[in-house]
Each structure stands twice: as structure tokens, then as C-alpha cells.
Amino acid sequence: MIENLLAIDIGSGTQDVLVYESNKNIENNIKMILPSQTQIVAKKIKDLTINKKDIFLHGTTMGGGASSKAIQNHVQAGYKVFATKKAALTIKDNLDKVRKKGIEIVDTPPKNASSIELKDIDIEGLKIALKQFGVNLPRNFVFAVQDHGFSPKESNRLFRFYHWRDFLLSGGNIRDLIYDQDTIPHYFTRMKALYDITKTLADNIWFMDTGSAAIMGALEDKVVNSKINDTGSGVLVNIGNQHTIAFLIAKNRILGVFEHHTSKLTEQKLYEYLKYFITSKITNDQVLSDGGHGCMVLPEVKSYNFDFIAITGPQRQVGENIGYLAVPHGDMMLSGPYGLVRSVLNLKGRGLNG
Known about the structure:
Layout: E1 4-10, E2 14-21, E3 30-35, H1 37-50, E4 55-59, H2 66-76, E5 81-83, H3 85-88, H4 95-100, E6 103-105, E7 114-118, H5 123-131, E8 140-145, H6 156-169, E9 178-180, H7 189-198, E10 204-209, H8 210-218, H9 222-227, E11 233-239, E12 243-250, E13 253-261, H10 267-278, H11 284-289, E14 294-297, E15 309-312, E16 324-325, H12 335-347
Parallel strand pairs: 1-8, 4-5, 4-7, 5-6, 8-10, 11-15, 15-16
Antiparallel strand pairs: 1-2, 2-3, 9-10, 11-12, 12-13, 13-14
Helix pairs in contact: 1-2, 8-12
């Protein structure tokens, strides 16, 4: 039986942490909103750029974003960047493309280069922090990351959406959005890297996509759950710091997926996209050509009503006038971790308390 869980939603801006203890009301569980590892790594690189130091990247594959931009800025400033193969895959899935960016792939640390470890999570740091407050780290972990999938030869936007297409065509069961170490798709290298660095520290580890976790967390909001349940239908939208994802859900099945970059959306543009998404009047190519990831809707959507729209995510102000602002257990920033815990407990035939 799972009594305690360390649930972490690892985003581009923050890592949202929940230490779930089943014997407490959910509101009394420990919660932390911390800078994400890509932000922490980016700051270290920026400091070394200011100090005119070459850098050596090692560790494993992690999320890019801020860290990748800082790496590129370091090269453009005229300083050297060395990286192991695993670390280099953080920047691009194709190592030749990494080299073309001016990064040298090496096996050993060069002399006089400052070392920076790449990893999506610092479990030891969390363990030390919690210990200061007399809290032991749980032996069960569940993590959310946005994994585009390993795609060295084509756009990772295209490749990521192949995953959503296959998920929809395989039935779109909302409870199939969580993986353990045996069921992680082979192309999700970021999840696999997370497993490799945490497997000796936990009894059980599960993984989800950040968008999926946030959507599952939104279902912990009582208003949302009353509309979108075993018999109901609606639209759930997570507006993250980098990506926006929307699901058409009916009777616990996902019948449509839309994904775009948040920076390219205004409230009016998102409203128009959702209007055409619900009515199946937008194509995958239209979203791609606008710089998004894609869109797919199954024919069954015509059998359901999608008038109810719920919005969550750290950039939810972009859609605050479009739909209901979901606040699961009174804390929108914990939508991801609540979704992670909900999904694990669903596997065990249980639900969150509170």
C-alpha cells in the first residue's frame, strides 16, 4: 500500500513539490515551489560567463529551455563549452547539431574548465532540506516532465505529437497516462534518465507528462470533477510557462489533444483555437505552421457537449476569461503534483483524501 509519496512536477520555470502523506488532510501536506533545475543550471552558467570561465557539462539528459539558452550565450560570448554525450543530448538529440553549435563532445573533464552537473532533480538536496524540518524523504517517487522524445532526424515537435496521436488511437484512456520503469516508452529519454538517477533511492517510481499531470490535478477541483467525470465531458487546458495543452475529455477518455507554445498565444488567439478545436475545425498542419506542436480530434467528439472549459497552469491569466479557473485543494500551483498523486492512487484503486 502506498502511504507516502514524493510528487514533483518539473517545469521550465519551477519544480512543484508535494510530500504526500495519506494520514493527513491533503491541505496539511508539505508543499514547495522551487526554481526548476534548468533555471538553477542556467544561473550557474551565467555566473561563469561573467567570470570568463570555460565550462564542462556532465551528468545526464535533462530539460533544456533556460539552460540551453545560457549554454548558447556562453559560446557566443567566446568561452568554451565541453560536454559528455549524455549531457549534450540535453541541447539536441543529434550530436552533430550540438557540435555545430560550438560545443565540444568529450569523455573526460578538460583542465581548467568549471564542472556543472546536469540532472532534472536534486534528490539529495531535497532530502537535506526536508531533514532540517524533521521530515524523512518518502521511498515512493512520482515525477512529471515534458519529454519530447528522442528524435535525432526530425522536429521534436512533430515527434512528440506522434505520441499523442498513438495514445488517442489506442483508446485515450485517461488512466493510461502514467508509467512505471517498465512501461516508459523507449523514446522518452528524459524520463529514463530520471529513473536512472533515482532508482536506488526509491521502492517505486512513476512518471507522467507535465501536461497530463496538471490535467489530472485539475480533476481534483470539485467543480471540475462534477462536470468531467465518468459520465460527463469538457475541456481541460493547462497553460504552462512554455507550453499550453488542451484535452477534450468525455467519460474518462481523451478524444482530442491540442498543444502549442504559450509565448505565441494571447487570450483571443487561445479562445479562437479552442473554439475550432472543440468543433474539429482546426487541422494539425495549421497548428504546426503557427509554431505549435499539433492538434488531433477523434470523430467521437460529435457525440458530446464541450461547453465546460477549465483552465489551470502558472500562466492561466492568458485564459482567465475563457473558462473556469481550477484550484484543486485551494492551490493551483500544485495541480501537477495533485495529478501525480491522483494517478498513482488510481492505480491502487484509491483516491486523494480531503
